[in-house]
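Subject: Re: docking follow-up (coenzyme A)

Dear J.,

Thanks for your patience while I sorted out the input files. As discussed at Tuesday's group meeting, I've set up the holo structure prediction with coenzyme A included as the bound ligand rather than trying to dock it afterwards. The sequence and the ligand SMILES I used are pasted below, so you can double-check that they match what you have on your end before we go further.
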Amino acid sequence: MELRRIAEDDLSQVFGLISQAFMRGGKDDGWIRDPATQAMHAYGVFEGATLKAQAAIAPYQCHMGGDLVMKMGGIAGVACHPTARGKGYAGMCMRRALEGMRDEGQTISTLFPFSWAYYRRLGWAWVGEKRRYGVPTSAMQSCPETRDVRPADEADHAAVRDLYTRFSAGYRGLIARDEAQWKQMLDHAEKEFTYTYLYPAAGPLEGYLTYRGGSRDNTHLREFICQTPAAKRALLGLLRRHDMQVSRFEWDAPADDDLRCHLCHWDVETRTTPCTQGRIVDVAGALRAWGASRGTEAAFVVRVADASAPWNEMTWAVTAGSGEATVAPSASEPGLEIEIGELSQCLYGAPTVCQLRRAGLITVHDEAQFEAMERFFAGPTMWTNDSF
Ligand SMILES: CC(C)(COP(=O)(O)OP(=O)(O)OC[C@H]1O[C@@H](n2cnc3c(N)ncnc32)[C@H](O)[C@@H]1OP(=O)(O)O)[C@@H](O)C(=O)NCCC(=O)NCCS
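The structure tokens for the complex came back this morning:
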């Protein structure tokens, strides 16, 4: 058995494994040539020359509140051949992927799990709460501002991206999308137009929504983001004007979204789920970047347990203030003890440090250090509106 980075020559084997695991044997191999796939790198377990399991890393940039953008490894394509399952092969690929991400400077990682429990054992923990609204079109109201909504054209895409970037500074977890991701979202598809609407019609952009496809019974908005109440009212009113074509719209929003302040109705459905699973790959790198970006005064010593990434498993002294942070191994007695999954949740801000303590997931030996840790991780909540 050999665990190694997957090379160009292995791609036909990767295709076979992915087809079996995710495509029910489908032979469409277009995704291999997709630039997003080609930007990934992967690790595989081989028995002789035969690939048995793999895990891939997609390179992303992730907004983490304010101006902070961190390199993030998105885990994808985790698969093991049915005849090799249960031998720990996928777990080995995941642990090797952690080393790979650390070496690339990807201090954090997220993934969209088939099972929360499977990745939890490897240190990824649920982060963020996502709301999915389902709103009957007839429950919405048009309003005077709706007259000031207009369709976007290609020349508006830069303003949409700029609004998204400003909005992203208020959350931890939104992807800093590249050109290809924006094109995928805003351009017309081969067989369908994409509809993007903006408010206001002239002047600085305050809100947009965008969708493609959908049905009369339910149409999913790919994104609906507003930075002013007027934009929210205006765009809800625009949706209301689809009443004869679409009876229900659904879209995703962060946990602190204020839809109910604009529209309170018994028939509005809200489904809440965790956003994703997140993990700190490199404790020192991630906490240093976070602490320096916040400027909060704090000092604490924390013992971190991380069975899958031994470089994190030690006692760390964390000191932050005036735009600087140091995170260094320490021989002092720790004031706090935590596992990597919960520390990752602290970094993403949801669940909060206090919620984790109430759930018995942080061991506190020193109250003052707990308060310092709470101050250190205070910041915007977590949300992401992309998946992979
Ligand atoms: C999921 C998958 C990658 C696991 O591969 P594997 O090599 O068997 O995994 P490992 O050997 O590293 O881990 C197996 C362990 O995970 C556990 N496990 C398997 N499925 C699980 C689940 N749904 N929830 C919790 N644990 C699970 C097994 O019980 C086993 O634990 P044990 O060693 O204590 O018995 C493999 O089953 C697969 O390819 N599935 C199809 C593709 C897929 O769904 N991939 C995940 C995409 S997010």
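A couple of observations from a first look. The longest helix spans residues 89-103. The chain is about 30% helix and 30% strand.

Let me know if you'd like me to rerun anything.

Best regards,
T.
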